[in-house]
Amino acid sequence: MTNECKSRGNKNKQDTLMPPNEIDTPIQDYEDDEIEEMQEVDLNKLIRTLRSSQKQILELQKSLMDKIKNLSRENEILRRNQNEMKQLVENETVIVTRNHNEVKNSIDQMKNTLQSLKNRMGEAEERISELEDRAQENLQSNQKKEEEIRYLKNIFGNLQDTIKKPSIRVLGVPEGMEREKGLEGLFSEILAENFPGLEKDRDILVQEAHRTPNKHDQKRSSPRHVVIKLSTVKHKERNLKCAREKHQITLRGSPIRLTADFSSETLQARREWRDIAQVLRGNNCQPRILYPATLSFVNEGEIKTFYSKQKLKEFVATRPALQKMLKDVLHTETQKHGHQYERR
Fold first, then answer.
1. Cβ–Cβ < 8 Å for 123, 131
2. Where in the sequence is the domain holding 305, given as residue range(s)?
3. Which segments constitute the L1 transposable element dsRBD-like domain (predicted)?
4. For labelling alongside 297, which of 137, 145, 200, 239 has CA 20 to 30 A away?
5. Does 214 map to a domain?
6. Mean pLDDT, rounded, for 68-78
7. Torsions phi, psi of 167, nearest 5?
8. Which has more pLDDT, 158 or 266?
């Protein structure tokens, strides 16, 4: 009994010294002697506690095994995913490397192409520069040739004018009228009908007479001109002066015209002054077209003479009143020459 009290006292003392979590634990260590001294109720309670603990341990073991299996399965999945990811990364690395190489090759090709284009552009620029130089040379050469052509035309026109200087051109003589007397006889008839004093002048001799052009065009409504070549320029001027003074020249009652016979170039140059002369005449500037194709008129009490329209335009630019007077006709002439240049 004394030993039992001592054991219980020691046990109570141990219970007092043990931590709370150990006191509340259902599973406790018992000595064999203590187990023998325990009552049957306590023993049954201990057995139930042990069985419950065993059951909890088994459940815990099962739970741990399940968790281990799940962890193993998850680890396997992670390992497989890791392998797949590794393979995917390797594949992507191969693709990226290949794409990088392709891009690099493309960039190299583009650089080569750009360099080739730069070289070709440089060659093209050099070629264009050469062509521009040649075009400039050709332009200068063409301008020089045009100047030479104009110069030769002027010489040719002057030669023609010199040759035709003693000639008179008669306009409006009907075709076939010369069959009776010939063209020389018709000219004598013109003088007798319009200038009786000249018709008696024996010094006025007709050297040659013909129609121009030589071949008659049946489709032409107006008759061909008659060209009368006299012996001297003096006789031609006398006839033309008389014609200007009389204003109206006739042949058998029909009106005709007597003009100087010029080259086609000179006639064209004289025609180009016609519109300007008409405007000047309407403003009482007394215009005249002098030999061979020179415009003369009175401006501010002075007689001005111009051999070209360019000189006239330069002069008109300094005279506001004259500029206003000739503005429309000079503008029309500029447009006309522009269209002719475009057609060429």
1. no
2. 263-331
3. 265-328
4. 239
5. yes
6. 86
7. -100, 150
8. 266
302 beta partners: 299
- Kindly tell me the number of DSSP H helices and DSSP E strands found in the chain: 11, 8
Q: Residue 53 is which amino acid?
A: S
Residue 306: DSSP 8-state: E
pLDDT at 126: 87
* Domain-terminating residue out of 261, 289, 321: 261
Over residues 169-179, the mean pLDDT reads 89
Q: Residue 332: how many CA atoms within 13 Å on its side-chain side?
A: 10
Amino acid making up residue 166 = P
- Bridge partners, residue 296, by sequence: 288, 305
Residue type, 167: S
Domain CATH code at residue 318: 3.30.250.20
Q: What CATH number should be reported for the domain holding residue 189?
A: 3.30.70.1820
pLDDT in the model for residue 260: 77
Any domain includes 34: no
Q: What are phi and psi of 174, to 5 degrees?
A: -60, 145
End residue of a domain, out of 244, 261, 278: 261
Token output for 136: 């400039």
Q: Residues 229, 231, 237, 243: is their CA dihedral positive or negative? A: negative
The token pair that represents 62 in the structure block: 């099962």
Q: How far apart are CA 323 and CA 110, in angstroms?
A: 64
Domain annotation covers residue 256: yes
